[in-house]
Each structure stands twice: as structure tokens, then as C-alpha cells.
Specification:
Blueprint: H1 4-13, H2 17-33, H3 49-61, H4 66-73, H5 77-86, H6 97-110, H7 121-131
Helix pairs in contact: 3-4, 4-5
Length: about 140
């Protein structure tokens, strides 16, 4: 199939200046009526066990893709994948790994979780020795031998 650019080049080669002028006028009209729309961004719903069951029902009873299910329910496609592949969010347990991770992330976003203080080099060395099961090393003096 011929592209518009190839068509324009053919018009130039054959000296069809009137046709090129008409084509340019059509382009200007198109630019004038063209609008830019903002990206389609979905504000995700909170995942609940009920929403997870709905995802599984749609996945099992329809031929919808994960992306279509996500768009229909207003959730992130990654959440749909987690429900289908790993069975996440099916229990209402607040101590489930995904619920704990969500709560930690929300706390970080609010700034509620205090940041860890950077440790000094001397503290790091002592902690490393303690982890290896060794206490502080004693040094020998010349008179000890």
C-alpha cells in the first residue's frame, strides 16, 4: 500500500503543483481540528476479596483478556494477573503478605514510617563480626608472648 509521503513525492515528480496545494490545504485543516487528549489513566480501586472473586469469575466465564478485565473493573492489570496466576487477594486476612505490603507502602507514602539512620563504619564492622559469631578481636602486645 502506498504511503502518503510516497504519493506526495509522485505528485512532485510529475509536476502536479495544484494537487500538492490541495493536499497541503487538507493537512492544515486537519491540524486545525486535531485535539490532544490526556492519557487514559485509571485510578485503581482497592483490591478486596470480592473484587478478586469477580476477576476469577470473569476470567473463567468469558474470553476477556486480563487487560479487558482490568479496564472493566477499574484495576491495574498486574493485580488481575496476581489474582489469576497466584490466587492473591482471595482471603480477607489482613496479615496476608499482599495486605502487609500494601499497608507498608501506604505508610511510606504518608511518611509515617521513620527512615533508618545511616550507621557509622565502626558500627557496621561490629555488627558484621557479631553476625559471624565472633566477638571483638583481642590484640596481642609484645610482652604477651
Amino acid at each position: 500500500m502506498t504511503t502518503l509521503k510516497e504519493f506526495e513525492e509522485a505528485l512532485r515528480e510529475n509536476g502536479m503543483l495544484m494537487a500538492l496545494a490541495v493536499l497541503e490545504r487538507l493537512r492544515e485543516r486537519d491540524r486545525a481540528t486535531r485535539t490532544t487528549k490526556p492519557a487514559r489513566r485509571i485510578a485503581g480501586k482497592k483490591m478486596t476479596p470480592e473484587l478478586a472473586r469477580t476477576i476469577l469469575e470473569l476470567h473463567g466465564s468469558t474470553e476477556m483478556t486480563q487487560q479487558e478485565i482490568a479496564f472493566k473493573l477499574g484495576v491495574n492489570q498486574g493485580r488481575v494477573n496476581e489474582v489469576i496466576k497466584r490466587g492473591k487477594w482471595l482471603s480477607g486476612d489482613p496479615h496476608a503478605p499482599e495486605a502487609v505490603a500494601r499497608d507498608k507502602a501506604k505508610a511510606r507514602m504518608r511518611g509515617a514510617e521513620p527512615k533508618k539512620k545511616p550507621r557509622r563504619a565502626s558500627e557496621k564492622a561490629g555488627a558484621t563480626a557479631a553476625r559471624k559469631g565472633k566477638g571483638p578481636q583481642a590484640q596481642l602486645a609484645f610482652g604477651d608472648l
